Amino acid sequence: MAFPKIQDRIHQELDAVVGRNRLPRLADEKDLPYTCATLLEAQRMGSVVAFGSPHVCGEDTTLGPYAIPKGTVVVANLWAIHYDPDLWPNPDEFNPERFLDEDGVLQKNEELIPFSTGLRMCPGEHLAKMELYIFFTHLLHQFTIKKPANTPPLSLKGLNYFAHRPGPFLAEFVTRD
Ligand code: HEM
After folding, report:
1. Phi, psi of 174 (to 5 degrees)
2. Which of 32, 4, 51 is nearest to 146 (CA)?
3. pLDDT over 70, % of the chain
4. Which range of residues forms the domain containing residue 155?
5. Ligand 1 mean position, distance from CA 30 (Å)
6. Which residue's CA is the closest to the ligand 1 atom numbered 35?
7. Residue 80, ligand 1, Cβ within 6 A
8. Most exposed among 56, 70, 161, 164, judged by the fewest C-beta atoms under 10 Å?
């Protein structure tokens, strides 16, 4: 909704690959690189669980120059990784192309870790990714989502409690033929 040109491109890709006579399926995913790149970029900028969950250091250890005593609460700042300009040029720009190579092939990037990493990373990752893909592709296959006239400017700033989520906003869903 905030990036109508990107939405147009997703509509074109969905119409070319899926067509108008059925809904998108998981099996279509490999043929929808631009749509999938947009979902990855939304996960980077959204950083839904921006600080992971707190963990406690089980034994005295060191990490780079830091001595971390046993019992220290450790929080991973996933947000900072996803907005690090050394990893993501112009990190405040919503740009799905950063996940595509020059031939438009989807590039997985190990520095994108919205589900964290390590032994205690999110066990719901695969379910969540399937849900994101199915919800997103079904909605965009069926609707054009627009910012209604005379509504406040859209903000990507979001509210952060445990989960980083959008503030209230209005959207207009226009049925696609
Ligand atoms: C977009 C959706 C989701 C995101 C971005 C997400 C992200 C995360 C993150 C960052 C953590 C912390 C990992 C760590 O501390 O190292 C976590 C933990 C966890 N997530 Fe998710 N999650 C999502 C959906 C789900 C779903 C759908 C389920 C279950 C069906 C789930 C179940 C859990 C559980 C049980 C933990 C705690 C794991 C542990 O402490 O051992 N999550 N998630």
Report:
1. -105, 125
2. 4
3. 100
4. 4-48+93-175
5. 25
6. 123
7. no
8. 161
Give me the number of domains the chain comprises.
Answer: 1
User: What's the gap in Å between 160 CA and the centre of ligand 1?
Assistant: 16
Q: What is the dihedral of CA 101, 102, 104, 106, to 10 degrees?
A: -10
Asked if the structure places residue 151 within a domain, the reply is yes
Cα of 115 vs its chain's centroid, Å: 10
Question: 67 to each of 60, 62, 63, 89, 112, how far by Cα in Å?
Answer: 8, 4, 7, 31, 27
- pLDDT surpasses 90 at 158: no
List CB contacts of 46: < 8 A, sequence separation 6 or more. 114, 158, 164
Query: Residue 50's Cα: distance from chain center in Å?
Result: 12
Specify whether the CB–CB gap between 89 and 111 falls below 8 A: no
Expressed in angstroms and rounded, the spacing between residue 72 Cα and the centre of ligand 1 is: 21
Q: For residue 109, is it within any domain?
A: yes
Strand pairing class (172-175; 159-160): unpaired
In a domain, 63, yes or no: no
Return all residues near 159 (Cβ < 8 A) that are at least 6 apart: 165, 166, 167
The predicted-structure confidence for 102-141, as pLDDT tens digits, reads as follows 999 999 899 999 999 988 999 999 999 999 999 999 999 9
Q: Per residue in 60-92, pLDDT tens?
A: 999 999 999 999 999 999 999 999 999 999 999
